[in-house]
Amino acid sequence: MKIFLSIWLLFSGLYTAAQPARPTGQPADAGVQLFYQKTGGRSVWITATGRQHLDSLAACLQKAAYLGLNANDYEPLLINALAGNSYQMAETTDTLRTDFIITSTAIRFFSDVAYGRLAKPPVKYSELPPLQNTALNIASQLADSLLAGRLSCLLQSIGPADTACLQLKNSIATYYKAMTDTAFKETAVTSLKADSSNTPLLLRLKQLGIRDSLSGNSTKELQEQIRKAQQLFNMLDDGVLRERFLKALNTPLSYRLQELYSALNQARWLHYYKTQAAVILVNIPSTTLFFYDHEKTALYSRVITGKKSTPTPTLGSRLTEVILFPYWNVPHKIAVRELLPYIKRSRQYLADNQYEILDKSGRVLDPATINWNNLGVNNFPYVIRQNTGCDNSLGIVKLNFYSPFGVYLHDTPGKNLFMLQRRFFSHGCVRVEEAVQLGHLLVEEETAAAMMALEAKGNQPDQKPVVFRVPATVYVFVLYNTAWPDANGQVRFYEDVYGKN
């Protein structure tokens, strides 16, 4: 039966209203219209020849849970009924209407597989462009696969071939398989015994995919499995059971699945930007940074992020410059709440820590001319600036980008804190262990050589900051995922330090 595209315009309001809002990309109707243009303007699902396509689509949708998606979001009753020949349509318009619904649903499903299902971008602030041509891209691939009779293969080819996505999907498969086992039950691990008599422990390790069965294994092998579980939860891997470890073990698998679902959909969304430009990713709970160039990991670094009381905000921005030997303009709150009491006790505190006092116009003032005793939290019309040097709180490199929060990536003289497993110490900025090396990667080769020459000379008397522009587009993402792959690609679960989950 021939369906001209004008009919699509007649019914488009019905389907647009029925679909959930998409955070990025084109509206669903743009993709549906392109789909019918490519398929000759005919019904493709509700026909005798379309039965095979409908069966293939139904089979794809049945895998939704393994893909970090909810099958109930994709018209399962309608599509399964049609695939099973148990749905009757009263008239031709019902056939047309249903065909459009199935097409729109298919585009939405495959779009979610490719780009992630998110109610909105997972950041508090973003100045980055939204995803482009997503619905059109998916509609085109869907039409091509359908016309070639290879719809069943589309699911394998359309998702990102990204290490993070693949590892997260593998973890989802492990936990979902365990949860859907008819013998599955949540049994709390309460004993601190690390031996084969601790049956709930053995069961949980099996559910986590760490051991194959409840029988066998020596005490030594069990301790090795406990160490693997401790690594999974980003804890000290010494094979000793502690209350904190039991708490992580006893977290319901359904909760772990939701963490993985959220992470996978964010990883899909992030992958789109990796295909457009170089990407710096900071994941707050894992206190790690990855720099991706041409979709490959070019650098990994441990980082220090904000305390719970001064959290690092999630954001998306563009890196603009690398600053060698930066000044540190102390944020007002830190100046009045933390530094001012020290200054009042001893004016020498300023000189000892290389601080200068500036007025609002940027002029350097003599601290001796200021009546410090009259100043307070609500009366401080000055800026405190720390001079350049190795003792500067920003270290010798600052990586600058715009955000309304006044945060950035930077080096630090306090390298010892990177050795700790829990690294939440900052006022919101991100301290990067490999900041200098990252700075070299962000500029052109000749510029990097000039930077290294200046670094070799060290901080000179009256050293001024040296600014290097970043020539290529580099996106900066600060995300919050309590499940995320580590430097070796192994998925770990991290403490929900800000209580966002």
UniProtKB/TrEMBL annotation:
Stored InterPro entries: LD-transpeptidase_YkuD-like (IPR052905), LD_TPept_cat_dom (IPR005490), LD_TPept_scaffold_dom (IPR045380), Transpep_catalytic_dom (IPR038063)
Stored Gene3D superfamilies: L,D-transpeptidase catalytic domain-like
One BP annotation, GO: peptidoglycan biosynthetic process
Keyword Signal: yes
Domain of life assignment: Bacteria
Pathway: Cell wall biogenesis; peptidoglycan biosynthesis
Signal sequence coordinates: 1-17
GO MF terms, alphabetically ordered: carboxypeptidase activity; transferase activity
Ranges where the L,D-TPase catalytic domain occurs: 278-452
CDD domains the record matches: YkuD_like
A Pfam family hit: Scaffold
Alphabetic keyword roster: Cell shape, Cell wall biogenesis/degradation, Peptidoglycan synthesis, Signal, Transferase
Residues annotated as catalytic: H410 (proton donor/acceptor), C429 (nucleophile)
Family: Belongs to the YkuD family.
PANTHER family the UniProt entry points to: BLR7131 PROTEIN (PTHR41533:SF2), L,D-TRANSPEPTIDASE HI_1667-RELATED (PTHR41533)
Name of the protein in question: L,D-transpeptidase family protein
Originating organism: Chitinophaga oryzae
